[in-house]
Write a structure and sequence with these properties.
By secondary structure, the chain is α+β, with helices and mostly antiparallel strands. The protein is built from ten helices and 20 strands. The strands form six sheets. It has a six-stranded mixed β-sheet, sandwiched between helices. The N terminus is likely disordered.
Length: 436
C-alpha cells in the first residue's frame, strides 16, 4: 500500500555502528542452505497466492488466501486464528501464534493478504520473466508473505524456531482498510502491546541498487474542505453585495495551504476538487458531481486531499494551521474543513528502531552483505506497522525488492526473496534468544 519510490531514496549521512564481525553459527548456516534448497517450492507457493485474486473488496478471495497461509503456518507449529472483519466491510485477518520458551524477545511479524487489484482488474496472473516475477501482489505483499514463510521454514529446519515466541499478523485490508479503523486494527494494536520487536514484511527499499533500511513511516490521513457562498449574477462578482463566490474562496484556501504549510517531511496533496451551482461528493468520497454556468457566481466548492506527516505533533500542528486558514474566508463565503477519523498514524524514527537496524546490519556483516543506511521516510508511504509503533520498536522493509507496486506490471526481484528470507531467519533467531 502507499507506493515506495525506490530509486529516489536517500541514505542517511550517518554511518551506523555495527558490532564486531562474527562468524555464522552452524544453525545459521543451515538456515541459509534451507532457503536456497527450497527456492522452487517457495516460488510455486508465491505463484499460487498471486493467481488467487485478493483485492481488498474481494472478501472471498482474501479469505481463500488466508486459508493458504494457514496451511503453511500450522505445520510449523503455529496456532492459527481467522479474525472475521465483515463488520468493517472487509474479510478478516490471520493471527498465528508460536509459543516458545518465554525467555527471549517476543516478535511480531506483519504482512497483508490483500492487494489493490480487484477482480475486475485486467492484471490477474503470475508470470516468470527471467529473474523477475510479474503479477498482482508479487511484491506487495504476497512476496513479503513468501519471505515470512521461507524464513520460518528455515528456522524450523535449523531448530531455532523451537524456543522462539512469534506472532504473525496478516491483515486482509491493508490496501483499503475497513471502517471503523478502531475495530479493523484492534487486534494488530493488541499484538503490538504483547511484542518486544516488530518486523514489517512490506517491500525492501533500495537506492542506486543498494539495499536500504527503513525505521520510519509517515502517516496517511484525509481532509475535506467545503465552501458555500451567495449565488448571484456573475456581473456582480467581487461586489459588496455578491462577494467573491465559492470557487475563488476554495482557490484561496488551497493556495494558502501550499504557501504556508510546507515543512520537512510534510505533504498535503489535493486529489479532488469541484464547484459550481451544485457540487456533491459521493458516498465513497472519490467523485464530485458538479453543475454550473459561466454567468452565475458559484454557490459551492469542494476539495479532498491527504495529509502525511512524520509525527503526531506535526499532524496536530498542521491541522491547527489548516483550520486557521479556512477560518478567514473571502467576503460572502463560508468555509469548513473536516478531517477523516480513520487515518494511519505515523511511525516516527526512534533510537530503538535504529538499534534494530544495527542488529540487521550485524547480520549483513556476518553474511558478507553491504551495510544498510536509513531510508528517508518521505520516500515511503503509510503502513500497518504504524499502528503498533507507539508500543514497540520496529523495522520496515523485510519483504523483497519490487517495482511498479499498485500498477499493472508489478514485479518482484526473485533473488531478493532469498536474500531477505536469510536475513530475516537469522535476525529473528538472534532476537528470539535475547532476554526480554
Amino acid at each position: 500500500m502507499r507506493l515506495l519510490t525506490r530509486l529516489a531514496a536517500t541514505l542517511s549521512l550517518a554511518v551506523l555502528s555495527v558490532p564486531a564481525l562474527a562468524e555464522l553459527s552452524p544453525a545459521e548456516t543451515r538456515m541459509i542452505r534451507n532457503v536456497d534448497a527450497e527456492q522452487e517450492r517457495t516460488l510455486a507457493m508465491l505463484e499460487k497466492w498471486v493467481n488467487q485474486n485478493s483485492g481488498s473488496l474481494n472478501l472471498d478471495g482474501v479469505t481463500k488466501v488466508g486459508a493458504m497461509l494457514r496451511s503453511e503456518l500450522e505445520p510449523l507449529g503455529f496456532k492459527v486464528q481467522w479474525i472475521d472483519m465483515r463488520e468493517t466491510g472487509r474479510a478478516g485477518h490471520i493471527l498465528a501464534t508460536h509459543k516458545g520458551n518465554g525467555r527471549g524477545k517476543r516478535l511480531l511479524l506483519i504482512g497483508h493478504l490483500d492487494t489493490v487489484f480487484e477482480p475486475d482488474s485486467p492484471f490477474q496472473r503470475w508470470e516468470r520473466r527471467g529473474n523477475e516475477g510479474v503479477g498482482p501482489g508479487a511484491g506487495d505483499d504476497k512476496g513479503g508473505m513468501a519471505v515470512i514463510i521461507a524464513s520460518l521454514r528455515a528456522m524450523h529446519a535449523a531448530g531455532t524456531l523451537n524456543n522462539a515466541d512469534i506472532e504473525v499478523m496478516l491483515t486482509g485490508d491493508e490496501e483499503d482498510n475497513g471502517n471503523p479503523i478502531s475495530i479493523a486494527r484492534r487486534d494488530l494494536v493488541a499484538a503490538g502491546k504483547r511484542a518486544d520487536a516488530t518486523l514489517d514484511f512490506e517491500g525492501l527499499a533500495q537506492a542506486g541498487g543498494a539495499d536500504v533500511g527503513s525505521i520510519a513511516r509517515r502517516s496517511s490521513g484525509a481532509w475535506t474542505v467545503t465552501v458555500t457562498a451567495r449565488p448571484g449574477h456573475s456581473s456582480g462578482i467581487f461586489s459588496a453585495g455578491s462577494g467573491d463566490g465559492a470557487i475563488y474562496e476554495l482557490a484561496r484556501i488551497i493556495d494558502t495551504f501550499r504557501s504556508e504549510l510546507q515543512e520537512d517531511k510534510l505533504t498535503f496533496n489535493v486529489g479532488l476538487i469541484g464547484g459550481g451551482q451544485t457540487a456533491e461528493l459521493d458516498a465513497g468520497k472519490i467523485r464530485i458531481a458538479a453543475t454550473g454556468k459561466t454567468n452565475i457566481i458559484p454557490a459551492i466548492a469542494v476539495a479532498r486531499g491527504d495529509l502525511r506527516a512524520l509525527s503526531q505533533d506535526q499532524i496536530e500542528r498542521t491541522k491547527t494551521k489548516m483550520q486557521a486558514i479556512v477560518a478567514r474566508p473571502l467576503p460572502g463565503a463560508t468555509a469548513k474543513i473536516e478531517f477523516d477519523p480513520d487515518e494511519y498514524p505515523p511511525m516516527a524514527p526512534t533510537e530503538g528502531n535504529r538499534a534494530l537496524l544495527a542488529r540487521l546490519n550485524s547480520v549483513n556483516a556476518d553474511m558478507g552483505l553491504e551495510q544498510m543506511g536509513e531510508l528517508d521516510p518521505a520516500m515511503r508511504g503509510a503502513g500497518d506497522i504504524s499502528f503498533v509503533a507507539r508500543d514497540v520498536d520496529g523495522l520496515v522493509g523485510l519483504g523483497p525488492a519490487a517495482d511498479g507496486e499498485h500498477a499493472p506490471g508489478e514485479r518482484v526481484d526473485i533473488a531478493s526473496i532469498w536474500r531477505q528470507a536469510k536475513r530475516a531467519a537469522i535476525l529473528m533467531s538472534r532476537l528470539s534468544r535475547e532476554k526480554r
